[in-house]
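Here's my example:
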Amino acid sequence: MTLVRNQSRPLTSRKSRLNSLVIRVCFFDPPSFGCEVSSREMALFRRKDTPEPTAIGIDTPDGSFDAPLFEGWQPIDSDIAARMYRNDMQLLFNFGAGGAIRGIKGTMSRFERQGSSARDFMKRTTGSAANFILQPIQQEIYNVLALAVQGHFEKGFRRWLRNSLQFVDQTAISDEDIVKSQWSNPNTPKRDLGCIMASLRGIHLRDVVEGPLLLELALIGNVVRHGDGPSALQAYQRFPFLFDPVVVFDDDPAVEEDEEIPERLRVNEERLALYAQAAFQFWHRVQLAYTGDA
């Protein structure tokens, strides 16, 4: 790939010089067309902001997790949709979540630089203030993106179970059970999504490699979706490392240990990437067992 410029326009100010540069993909030898970019022009591009480093991104399968969900796994025709679910998760995460996170990180970085290096006092003050104000917004974006990943996985998972039902004989599970099921329903196993998977496909979700992360994600998604409630307390008790501790003033906690739990949720970028990778890997292994083709 080569950067080339439109030579029909004079290059004067920095703004006009940048506007005159046209980026084209050249699959030919640039010197034969007389189009080269000077070192000074390249410096103008280097001065532009670059995306902040991010953990967001699901790579193409490399063969490192190609085993079926368990040794006795039996593919059935409902598994044909798993490739679509896998690819959709990759696109959602790489382009949707990745774009959102790179955007907010870039904005935060600019305000941080302005607050620390701007020559004007007011610019430094406003930059520092904006960076501080946006910190909870950045965290909320991460939390909401976790819900997006969870919702996308659950939608495909339920559809996959409903389609699997058509190819399984002699089961007490009905289509209505799947529609009305929950991620955790110990009192009614036939309306527990993990138990339904065990009944229809021979293994509970918690017992596959990706299961614990996906069940954690389901609980965290409920916290983001509903706020206060049983899911928030359960998530805090099971995964305390995902929550900020209670703030203490003069040896007195600001709130009780079990209060304001949803507001203290802190899904970070790396955890979000693990959730999406787990969903992607689950569908990859289901589709690979069915098609034999990555």
